[in-house]
Specification:
Two copies of one chain form a homodimer. Chain A is mostly helical and 189 residues long. Chain A has nine helices and no strands. The first copy, chain A, binds a DNA duplex (30 and 30 nucleotides) through α3.
DNA sequence: CCTAATGATGACAGTCGCTGACATCAGAAT
DNA sequence: ATTCTGATGTCAGCGACTGTCATCATTAGG
């Protein structure tokens, strides 16, 4: 038997979610989250780089799903098609079982500006990662950045729809629709 | 004659730019910036909501240039064309005289992750504002958000090119080129 | 000309986010 | 049995940021 309960990080994440939900992000201290798990504030900051990070861990793994999907695409495919394949790969990570949790999580983020700022930063980081992967495939700039950013835009809009009340379609299907809409929009200009 | 030197906020911004440039963002304290202008730390935080804000003030005015340009567009124009008009309006704000200052400023931001995060947040805020203006014009969702976000993507890429070394073309011309590239990309998918 | 309202600032205490340094101690490795 | 490892506790401390009250030159009003 271990000296400490395992999964401290996961328990801290869950405690943070509950506390942020019940009393808000600003009015929840890191020490409070830690105490809820029976550890000290110092331990909290050993698991997470800052207070916002507690809701965004696992993103690295999340990014890898996108990149792995992109790597399966044969070299000749156009950048946007490659990005859309990456998106569908990432979308598969958000299966129907995950939808309720994603809804709650997004509720917390939407209610707290500092968390929105972090989320946008993470999404931008995904775009940077995808752009780098495209450049590694030989896509020149600015096409690589444009395709990657456009892809994350599509993903973000589709995700917002996916967690909307009453929505039941899978994320990848929504993303396809959103891309069609965007293609129509740019085609008009 | 005024009791205090006027333009305290502007002097704080300039002092902050110099200190961030010479010794970095993290290793510059708010008290230090304030002292460089002969005021107290408390006064610094009366002018700026937080330390990062000192480099991002004036954005509200900056956003209005975009929206004002959008408002000049006649109602029947397609969303993307309307957004591109807004972009050209915003681009006119960055005239050639402003380019050296923008280059320095971007250098500081690129060197400091916390500032990058704030910049992305501000750019996202511009997208939200534009999307709202589009909805006010009768553009439905998700077209409004897509057009607005795509527009800011184009603007961001064009801006990055505009401040690149040796670049001399005006921002609006670059933005037009970037949009053409993006249209070509989406047309392939 | 006197007086009161204004408004940017100083002074100060305090909370909280976050870090560095060192000690602790159960279990794994040797 | 001893050493090593690694997650944790403890503690001191800095810096970001806020609430509160006092100050005082300027300005508006009488």
């Amino acid at each position: 038997m271990a000296r400490w309960e395992p999964g401290t990080a996961a328990r801290l994440q869950q405690a943070a979610m509950e506390l942020f939900t019940s009393q808000g992000f600003e009015r929840t201290t890191a020490a409070e989250i830690a105490a809820a798990c029976g550890v000290t504030e110092r331990t909290f900051f050993r698991h997470f780089t800052d207070k916002r990070d507690v809701l965004f861990r696992g993103q690295d793994e999340f990014e890898r799903v996108f990149v792995d999907a992109l790597d399966t695409v044969s070299p000749g495919v156009t950048p946007m098609k490659a990005v859309m394949t990456a998106l569908r790969g990432g979308a598969s990570w958000f299966d129907d079982e995950r939808r309720p949790h994603s809804r709650m999580r997004q509720g917390v983020i939407d209610a707290n500006p500092p968390l929105q700022e972090r989320e946008r930063h993470k999404l931008a980081g995904l775009a940077d990662t995808l752009a780098g992967a495209l450049r590694a495939r030989g896509v020149p700039e600015p096409a690589a950045t444009l395709a990657a950013q456009t892809g994350t835009t599509v993903f973000g809009v589709a995700f917002g729809q996916w967690i909307a009340d009453g929505e039941t379609r899978p994320l990848d299907a929504i993303a396809d629709d959103v891309l069609r809409e965007l293609t129509a929009l740019t085609g008009e200009a």
